[in-house]
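Interim report to the steering committee. The following record documents the input for Potassium transporter (757 residues).
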Amino acid sequence: MNPLEDFVEQGISHENLRRTSCMSVVTLAYQSLGVVYGDLSTSPLYVYKTTFSGRLSLHENDEEIYGVLSFIFWTFTLIALFKYIFIVMSADDNGEGGTFALYSLLCRHARLSILPNQQTTDEKLSAYATDESRDALQSSALKSFEKCPRFRKWLLIFVLLGTCMAISDGVLTPTISVLSAVSGVKLKFTELHENYVVMISCVIIVGLFSLQHHGTHRVAFVFAPIVAVWFLCISSIGIYNIFRWNPHIFHALSPVYMLKFLKSTGTEGWISLGGVVLSITGVETMFADLGHFSSISIKVAFTFLVYPCLILAYMGEAAFLSKHHEDIQRSFYKAIPEPVFWPVFIVATFAAVVGSQAVISATFSIISQCCALNCFPRVKIVHTSSKIYGQIYIPEVNWILMCLCVAVTIGLRDTNMMGHAYGLAVTTVMFVTTCLMALVMIIVWKQRIISVVAFLVFFGSIELLYISASVCKVHEGGWIPLVLSLIFMGIMYVWNYGTIKKHEFDVENKVSMKRIVSLGPGLGMVRVPGIGLVYSNLVTGVPAVFGHFVTNLPAFHQVLVFVCVKSVQVPHVREEERLLINRVGPKEYGMFRCIVRYGYKDLQQENYDFENRLVSGIIQFVESEGNYASELLSESSEELGKFKNEAFDAQEHASTKSNHQKEMEESAYHILVRKPAMEHLGNSQLKDESLQILKAKESGVAFILGHSYAKAKKSSSFLKKFAINVVFAFLSKNCREPDVLNVPHTSLLEVGMIYYV
């Protein structure tokens, strides 16, 4: 090939790559409409209605309408566009977003985590990368954060506050979206009683939650078209209303009208801002769903479609209101041209359902992350799709949310009161994000203090303005997110507190290695063929529960493995980095430790045979130990060794479900044949140990799980006794048992213990 042809071919390849990349971004941007922007898209249904629900009256000069539109435009532009799209979206944690992503970044860079079982070995994870370079001022600030345990405690409480308010959104979004959409039917059926509208809304809500266990993957392909059509509908109607009713409505985009509005309306105008903030409900979802889509795709969708369509919709409704003051409480549906009313009504109802579904799915994801970080009682997590990772369903949470949604719908029966509650929840979550972002800018991005203060003051003051307006409506529905958040925060904090206290008890009462070694290789028992897996929360030492076996049982398995399943402060842990293997005590004792690590967004349910994976890992560790014995002799007995699972490659698990059992048998056979035959095996003693482990596996694997009960010490305060003996005990009794990687019940042995904390 001559140079000219080579140059042309390279140019064509580069052009094709660029086109493919652009098409991928556009495709993801289109798909994000149904997942990310469903909640944000339905805001026009109730923004003006809620804003003018108080004593705020309209005058002939339309200053109030122009002022509200100006507030909507600049709030939407500054908060949604500048803060979230241009700034917050850049603070991703290995591609993941949301409150926990920011918290994870802070914990890794400033050692602010209060998770137990954290090790320096975790910092070697590929997703754990941190930048150690910092100037003297940043180092001083960092040390002050790390040395203050109260700061870590209050930081967690602050994060839980934002999380609980986000969960409250999962209750309020379906109620206000569905009820606002359905209430449009009263324009055509004026004699229809309000009870029927509420009943229809409840039926839709119950139906929505009842279908959650099927998952959304079967109907998710229609979400994006529904939201896209909805955006086109409201923007087209907005343009129509602008040109028909008030072409000069563009003047309201001037910030001067905000000042005029506050000056002319006074306190009532300030309180009405609690309705304006509803225009940006759902912007937090953009950041939270960052892991499902690329950052650039979400930015493209918002900048070129979502932002202009919603601004046109709000401008068009304001133009209609400027000529129809009497229709303020029905302005959205009144502004729809008669010929297209029913099609728009149907699309609005579907859009409300899609928006509600997005928030419900986000709530499941939040609860799952809380469980991973020991901040929520264990619940059953069901995978609803084998093809799409991260689609989960939590039965207990689903039915609780459904009952709360129905109760709020029947109890309030008014979208205005729901809007007041919704506004307080949304603004609180945004303010939490702003504060966490300020810390990220200092600790992670290493920005100058003056720029961080400017960011915090500018956006924080805007959000505090809206929070203050929403707080004034506490007696008119705003109490709902406060009560829900207090309940969820109480549950989360008590569960986290009790879990930490139990871990401290484990650490203080673990069996000393001196005692274990003094028992001899037999551990004072008869060692029978087989492998015993003892689950505990310890990453070093021998758990206290094992002391019960040594004291009370006459026999134990030939190979003993202490298994610890823990979460680390990264969103995902790669499969080849998931397990850590090491030997406990002298070689002839036959004791090992396996640490199974998960990220806070990983689902702790394995789709492979954990027993075979573990045995393969132990053998690989033993072989590695034999090959590098001279190096390992200088290491401590608790040094952890990484391994990669080469015995089970991905191809063995990509076949059909009908061949699954056969594949598992073949995989086990490969270990039996391949491992001893490998050329890099060490001396005969090492070969014998590998064979002994394989024979022990064939004899059977038993899973031993400590079932502990926490009780407060007699010297504890009344508050601690109530938290541990009543609340934590109730949660422990009614929550799901700890996951032990799909252990068959016939192989499970539970040992009860009482922890005095």
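Residues 7-12, 629-685 have pLDDT under 50 and may be disordered. The committee is asked to note this result when reviewing the revised timeline.
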